[in-house]
């Protein structure tokens, strides 16, 4: 897991951010930034660059590699620090909390603003950059991309999707976005995978999830990675998270991706609550959602209905 830069953020100085920004700019053109270019990129003197490198290496914000020259690049911690500084300067973050969630390609922290909010850092490319690069629309056509570009594009994409869907679909309210980070509403509740629903709640909850899937489709998007791990249950409602891989309904594979989403959810309910949902007809539900006609009570989609 990437270190939480909030634990030492207040120790960082303006010159440190100049250096980080310079390396960030240089990484647009090369994986490793030649140290001889850092004074021009950062606006610092050579002596100041040397001092800032030591400080940033101490906090694991950058890493070094000796090639034909000494090269530097940002670590995720350095990229986190740049995004966090932007939010603080804009006045949308006033205090830092602890980590509240770790996913396959993200980490989420609680932060303080006018109320408690969630700060999500995208980590696409951190563990398996090549696989992410091949499977995401926003990177697959690029021949030369970095983890930094991949993570930023994922955040930009998710933020725009959330802005499109909220509040018509039950998704977190998007507040702000910078680089690979998104600031959003903090949702109270529990992950679907971690709770045991009462008998009276099972069909009501499944129905609510499928109706949010239908709402998203009606507003132009298929989640395309839906499972029990990105559905929250709280305050009597369902909230669906993690939208960077969502596709538009016009996408050539949207129907297949919708089918996978619905099957994932229903298979989970069948495993956990077999007596209540065995009769449900998945194909009827998929057809109904895709055609925009998912408007009946859930029992109408049972095999004997």
What topology does this entry show?
Blueprint: H1 14-26, E1 33-34, H2 38-42, H3 46-58, E2 62-66, E3 70-74, H4 76-89, E4 95-102, E5 106-112, E6 116-122, H5 129-135, H6 137-140, H7 147-165, E7 174-178, E8 181-185, E9 190-191, H8 199-218, E10 221-222, E11 231-234, E12 237-240, E13 247-248, H9 254-272, H10 274-277, H11 282-290
Antiparallel strand pairs: 1-3, 2-3, 4-5, 5-6, 6-8, 7-8, 9-11, 10-13, 11-12
Helix pairs in contact: 1-3, 1-4, 8-9, 9-11
Describe the structure.
The protein has 305 residues and is an alpha+beta fold. It has 3 domains: 5-78, Arc Repressor Mutant, subunit A; 91-185, Phosphorylase Kinase, domain 1; 190-301, Transferase(Phosphotransferase) domain 1 (Transferase(Phosphotransferase), domain 1). It is 42% helix and 19% strand. The chain contains 11 helices and 13 strands. It has helices at residues 14-26, 38-42, 46-58, 76-89, 129-135, 137-140, 147-165, 199-218, 254-272, 274-277, 282-290, and strands at residues 33-34, 62-66, 70-74, 95-102, 106-112, 116-122, 174-178, 181-185, 190-191, 221-222, 231-234, 237-240, 247-248. A 5-stranded antiparallel sheet has the order 4-5-6-8-7. Strands 1-3-2 form a 3-stranded antiparallel sheet. α1 crosses α3 (46-58), α8 (199-218) packs antiparallel against α9 and α9 (254-272) packs antiparallel against α11 (282-290). The longest helix is centred in the C-terminal third of the chain and has 20 residues, at 199-218. It is elongated. The N and C termini lie far apart (49 Å). Residues 129-136 and 138-144 have low confidence and may be disordered.
